[in-house]
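Practice record 12: protein with iron/sulfur cluster.
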Amino acid sequence: MITANRYFRDKFGHKMYKASISLDLTCPNRDGSKGTGGCIFCSKGGSGEFSASGDSVKDQIERAVSQVRSKAGPDAGYIAYFQSFTGTYCSAGYLERVLDEASSCEGIEAISVATRPDCLGPDILAVLENLAAGIPLFVELGLQTSSDETAVLINRCYKTGEYISAVKALKAIGANVITHIIFGLPGEDKDMMKDTVRTAVDAGSDGYKFTCLYVLKDTALEKMYLNKEVEILEMEEYFDIVEEAVKLLPDDAVVHRFTGDGPKSILLAPEWTKNKRQVVNYINRRFGL
Ligand code: SF4
């Protein structure tokens, strides 16, 4: 396993920071084409609460870069990160335009797009392939679980087989694939969570973003949580699973995130994710980072 910091330093020769971009897109799981209401854990912000907002992609990147420049220093590079909702749920023409705009911004050395496996049709893949020929491209896929039963429960609205095909297609066009996995989904035991990791490894995922299930206000999960239909993992319990997951990864797999956290203003549980510094220290200690 390699940490993201080390991976980026090796690949780019310096530290990389993300400049988050919010596009005016939605998700097939929200607009009725696949489902409504979204995944049970997804807030109205579409998993992109930390994104900047603004008019143009260029404006958003400039704002995001200026916010971290003093901390990042002159040698840092930036990844334009299309984070919120489904970053490829749009026309190929629009996608090409915004990706070109991002990649031509000063300081941008890579592009990362978060999307769903079922939003990667041939026209979209052609745009991504063209982009990947000129700049490192990361595509983040929200798998969350390999269990199609759990997928129904969380209202993911696509089959795991679609994820496997998407990874193959993305790797064929030169993209680096990062898989999002949630531990602690309702009804899942440790073996199921490990199966999810094995599925992603077997599919050929290059990188991983792990997170514990967390509950945000105004989500379907909030109701389940308040009705005591779902248990949220304690910190030790969660990182025990992460430790086992890491053991399943190939040596060159990159862990981009050991856990996630929701925005404090709408985060109901788990409490332990609210103390970011404590969690980071714990991760560093436990995983020898
Ligand atoms: S696919 Fe992503 S953006 Fe869409 S509802 Fe699920 S988590 Fe939210």
